[in-house]
User: What shape does this take?
Amino acid sequence: MARSLAKSPAKAVSGELAAPPREDAAARKSQRLDLFKFVPFRLNRLAAEVSSALAVEYQDRYGLDIPAWRVMATLGFRKDACSAQYVAECTRTHKSTISRAVTALMKRQFIERVENENDRREFRLRLTRKGRALYEELLPRLLQREQEILACLSAQERRDLATLLGKLENGLNLVQTSEEADAKEAY
Assistant: This one.
């Protein structure tokens, strides 16, 4: 469920929307968006850089790209098999990108399709033994790399960052824990 984060600049007057004051319109016209202060831009840039820094651990060594790792990571933390749609929603990655990653991972025998016990028309995905072994080999390296990335923050700043990210995720109605994700079939 999406929520609007923007508030309307106009105020209701007798049930009608009043036009914004002229000085507000003039101020908005002269405003300039400083991307380096714009939170969505900053978060996107950080996410891209962190993904690239982590990708070093699995791209050269194992030939996995970022979407393939996202599929493996999602399947790796889950107790049960899940759909490709779930992976796409969980990782906020386009379904066609996930589909290509699934195909490549299946060819390399890192993941497999299993029949959904509740709906035999649907297939779910899970790691194979080979895929689980790779996931377990990569996990300590990626966690170590995460610590290196966060090394510029004090322990308190790391806790504060986790709290603030949680608040943003909550404000956007995003699942925040593995337990929540396991309990949901789809977002």
User: Anything to note?
Assistant: Strands lie at 12-13, 16-17, 111-115, 123-127. The chain is about 60% helix and 5% strand. The helical segments are 22-30, 39-62, 66-77, 84-91, 95-107, 129-150, 155-171, 178-183. Residues 10 and 19 are 6 Å apart (CA to CA).
